[in-house]
Amino acid sequence: MKQTIKNPNDVKWEDFWAEKLENKIDKNWDKAAPGFFKRTRKDDYQDALFDMIILDENDTVLDVGCGEGSVTIPLAKKVKKVIGIDSSPKMLEYLEKRAHENGIKNIETFLKPIEEIKYKEIGNVDVVVCSRSLNGIIPIKEVLTELNKIATKYVFITIFGPENKKIEKDFDKEIGRKTEDYPDYNYFFNILFNMGVYANIERFDLNNYREYDSIGEAMDNGKFRLDLYSDEEKELLKNYLERILSRDEKTGKLYNLKDKADWIMVWWKKQ
Q: 164 pLDDT exceeds 90?
């Protein structure tokens, strides 16, 4: 893609964003849902998220890409109502199951791809939260435009930071496979800037590395695209994890100090 640029503010960052994602292979989220439901637990990402987002007990919140409810459920305990939107029927089924188990009745769900979210269907809510859900969305400017219309108070979005997927990239390099390449967060900031949205950027200060009970759990934790690996590559992954993971003598858990999430919070207050 070649753009002739005279003014830096004329750069169509959304085109560069789309170019980065042109070869992405979508995950089967229905198939992934049981694993996400099983693995969901409170971690330092969730602590950091709720430390940053601004909520009032009378707020209505739109949770975009809500999945099985790892953020939706704690949101619902803090506000008047949460609208959860996801493209996976199975994810929403698990969300409703979790809400029932927790006695939560202030969640409304919509089965809809993020790319198809429209202000005219949703209307206004106080706060929009997009937790780890926009990294792979191609018509990003259109989606951001709709979300900005929907929110009346705040929009909070988390996307990949520059040091995400360290051990995954190292493994893919070993086997000669190209890791999924997502756009950097500076693209995201500049797309918003060109829309006239002057966002705040904050990096999560996450200290906890991931821990696993077994090599099998380390393989099947949602970080590795097992659906794209051959049987031979899965065996190589098993050997790789056996080589790089250490066992904590006190807890018995497997870990690697490089195996940490890296997330950026992009947020703005509506004028």
A: no
Residue from 183, 186, 198 nearest 137 by CA: 183
Site of tokens 């409170």? 42
- Closest of 168, 182, 171, 179 to residue 210, by C-alpha: 168
Domains of the chain, first to last: 8-166+178-209+261-269 (3.40.50.150), 210-255 (no CATH)
Beta carbons of 152 and 126 less than 8 angstroms apart: yes
pLDDT tens by residue, 86-113: 999 999 999 999 999 999 999 999 999 9
- Of 211, 202, 222, nearest to 250 by C-alpha is 211
Give Cα 235 to chain centroid, integer Å.
28
Phi-psi region of 45 (alpha: psi -120 to 50; beta: other; left: phi over 0): alpha
What DSSP character marks residue 14?
H
Three-state secondary-structure class, residue 211: strand
Q: What is the pTM of this model?
A: 0.90
What whole-number distance in Å separates Cα of residue 67 and Cα of residue 33?
8
